[in-house]
Give the backbone structure.
Amino acid sequence: MAISGGGFQRKSKASDQIPSSSLADIAFLLLIFFMVTTVFRKETERNIEWPDAAATQQIDEKRQNIMYVWVEQSGQVFINDRPVAMSDVSSLVAPAWAESGRRLRISLRADARVPYRYIDAVQQEIKDAGAIYVVFATDLERQMQRVRR
Amino acid sequence: MLNKKQKVSDEIPSSSMADIAFLLLIFFLVTTVFPKDRGLPIVLPEAQDEVEVSQRNILHIDIMPNGTVQLRRGDSQNTSTVSPRDIEGIWRIEVAQNPNLIAAVKTHPDAQHRYMIQVLDGLQMAGAERIALQMLEG
């Protein structure tokens, strides 16, 4: 009968369990890694005052199919962090609309105080580009606030 | 004398720390709401589909520069001035009388964007779906 280990009694000092004490460190490392690498938005926030609306709803579309058009109080339009002349809006929207396969949502982020003539002009430009889905970006207004006013 | 051997460990159990961390991770993943991806959706009419609508089925909603709203039914000459806050109730009453009603929202070019949003908000709260946005001429 063969003796296992060639007759020597070998005593292993290594534990046969997976070390679980470092698992927490791994988890926290992952947490911190994703926190650091997450890019929230490609463009910077413009300083605008959001209009309030109680009927505010989430845009039911992927972020890549949402195009943000900012209208500042002065009526200046910004797309992708760049100021855009009103007449150039449709030439920027049209390729995005074609690329998205008619799913593009235009999130119109207009300042609450901007005169309506600019909003109407932007709408015309969007219409000329062929896009039809527009979302007027608003802040959710709570019913409580409404009563107080 | 009985020798009592203490079996309770005097260390904080670290094996559940990973579970806690992952739980936190998942909690924040789920609860994160990306701000401002929301608003009042509207579908613009496409260029080709212009349809004739009977004046009877139109409710003219004119928004003035000071934020007041002038209401006029398509088939009458009477206008009434209301507050944007009343639009929701008015629409509910009007649409009960005429289910085919269309809201023609015309905003004065000098009126602030917020007043148009208030009216649109009221209409959408009342469940209106057929809304036309235009600029007030003249």
